[in-house]
Task: inverse folding
DNA sequence: CAGTGGTCTAGACCACGGG
DNA sequence: CCGTGGTCTAGACCACTGG
C-alpha cells in the first residue's frame, strides 16, 4: 500500500470497497477513520477522501458521532446513471450476457442541430457510428454517436469503433472524455426503432439519453443518442440534497 | 467571512458561485487557489473543497497546470436530476410560473409492494399524498408520496403537506431525508394520467421517477412516484467517468 | 522555467451519538 | 463522558501547462 499512481485515496477506496463486498465488517460497522488511517499508515484525510467517495457511490453511510456503516441498500444496486459505464457492464449487471453489433460507420454531412452542438462550421462532415447492444441475444440498446473527423490524429477502420467511444477518443484523437451532459427523454418508439430493437408490442415507451460529451478543455467533442428498452433494463440514480 | 455554520467551505462556495454568475471573472479565468485562499484568509484546502463541489455541479472546470475556469455550458443548465430540488424550482427554471395543487391526503392500507419498500408489517396503514404541479396553469407533474403514520411525532392537517415532503419530515417526524434511490421509467400515459395531466394527445410518452427516500440511519421512510410531462419539462444530468 | 492544480501529511478543534 | 465523524489549518511535494 505504498505505490503512487493510482492515488493513495484510490487505493484505500478500492481496498475498502473490496472488504465491503466481501462482507468482512461485523454488523456492517466500518472501523473508525483514525483506526483505518493507522492500519494503512496513511493520514486520516486520505481515509476520509476514500470514504467520501464510497458514500457518494452509495456503498457506505456515515453518521457523525456514531460511525461509518455499510449501506445494504446501495450494495444491491450497482449501476448508476450518473456514472459513465460501458453499456456491456450495465447489461451484465442486469443479469444478461452482453453483446455488441457494430451496425454502421460512415461519414456524412452534419445537419444544423449537430453543427451547433459540436461547434462545427456548416457543411462539415461527421462520422456517424451506430451500435446495437444485445442482452442474451435480445436487442436492448440502440446507440448512435457522432464525432467530427477533424479531431482524428490517425486513420481508423470501422472495427476501431467496436469498443466504447471514450476508449476510441484517447487513441485516435488524443482527447479525453471528461463528462457527458445528458437529457433524459421518454418517447414512444417510432417504427424504425420498433424494428431495430425488435420490440414485442407497439406502441412501446422507450427511454432515450440525448447527450453531448466534453473534453478536458470543456469543448464539445461528441454527440450521442441512446435508446433503452425499459422492460429489460432499468436506469437508476442516487439523488441527494443540493447545496 | 468568519462565521461558523454554514461551513467555511459552503461560504466560499456560494461566494464564488455568486461571482461566477455575475460574470466577474475575466475571460472565465478564476484566480488560483492560493490567491483565493489568501484573499479570503482561509486555507487552500477549504478553497479546494469549495471548487471541487462547484466542479461537480458543473460550474467550473479545473485543468492541472493551467487553472480553473468558468464552465459556460454548465451555466446554461441549472436543474440537474441528481440533486433533490423542489419541483416548483424546476418548473421556474424552465421558464414557467409554478403552482401546486394538493389533491388528496388520506390514510389507507399499504399494498404489498409498498409494505416491502418501506419495511412495514402487512396490514399497516400509510398516508398517501397526491399533488399536481402546474407550469403557467398547465399541469406538468403528478406526484404521489407514501409515508408511514407511525413515524409521526405530532398531529398534522392536510395543509401541512403543501410544501416539499423533506420539509414536512423534520417538523413532524424528526427525520431527515438523506437521499432518494430512484428508478427512471418511461411509460405510455394510462388514461387516468392523461386525464390528470390534461395531456393534449394520446398515446403520450411520460417520464416517471419511482423513488424510495432514506433517512440518516439508512432506513426507508418514504416512497414517491412522480410523472413528468416531457414536452414542457426536461430532466438533465451530468455523467462522469466512474472510479 | 514559473505557476497551476493534484495529492498527502500531521495536527487541531468542534458537534454529535450513545452509553 | 468518550469516541465518532465534520471541519479547518499550514505546509510539503508532485505533475502538468504554458510561455
Result:
Amino acid at each position: 500500500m505504498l505505490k503512487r499512481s493510482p492515488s493513495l485515496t484510490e487505493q484505500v477506496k478500492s481496498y475498502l470497497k473490496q472488504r465491503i463486498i466481501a462482507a468482512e465488517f461485523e454488523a456492517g460497522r466500518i472501523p473508525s477513520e483514525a483506526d483505518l488511517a493507522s492500519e494503512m499508515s496513511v493520514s486520516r484525510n486520505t481515509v476520509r477522501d476514500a470514504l467520501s467517495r464510497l458514500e457518494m457511490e452509495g456503498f457506505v453511510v456515515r453518521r457523525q458521532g456514531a460511525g461509518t456503516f455499510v449501506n445494504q441498500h446501495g450494495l444491491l444496486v450497482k449501476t448508476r446513471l450518473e456514472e459513465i459505464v460501458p453499456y456491456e457492464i450495465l447489461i451484465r449487471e442486469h443479469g444478461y450476457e452482453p453483446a455488441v453489433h457494430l451496425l454502421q460507420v460512415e461519414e456524412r454531412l452534419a445537419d444544423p442541430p449537430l453543427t451547433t452542438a459540436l461547434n462545427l462550421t456548416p457543411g462539415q462532415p461527421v462520422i456517424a457510428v451506430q451500435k446495437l447492444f444485445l442482452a442474451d441475444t435480445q436487442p436492448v440498446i440502440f446507440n448512435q454517436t457522432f464525432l467530427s473527423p477533424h479531431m482524428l490524429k490517425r486513420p481508423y477502420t470501422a472495427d476501431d469503433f467496436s469498443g466504447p467511444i471514450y476508449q476510441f477518443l484517447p487513441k485516435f484523437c488524443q482527447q479525453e472524455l471528461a463528462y457527458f451532459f445528458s437529457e433524459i427523454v421518454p418517447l414512444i418508439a417510432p417504427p424504425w426503432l420498433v424494428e431495430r430493437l425488435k420490440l414485442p408490442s407497439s406502441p412501446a415507451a422507450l427511454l432515450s439519453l440525448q447527450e453531448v460529451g466534453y473534453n478536458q478543455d470543456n469543448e464539445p467533442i461528441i454527440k450521442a443518442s441512446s435508446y433503452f428498452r425499459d422492460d429489460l433494463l432499468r436506469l437508476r440514480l442516487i439523488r441527494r440534497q443540493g447545496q
Remarks:
- Residues 4, 32-34, 48, 51, 62-68 of chain B lie near DNA strand C (CB under 10 Å from a C1').
- The helical segments of chain B are 8-21, 33-39, 44-56, 72-76, 87-93, 112-117, 165-173, 191-196.
- Residues 225 and 236 of chain B are 18 Å apart (CA to CA).
- The first strand of chain B starts at residue 29 and ends at 30.
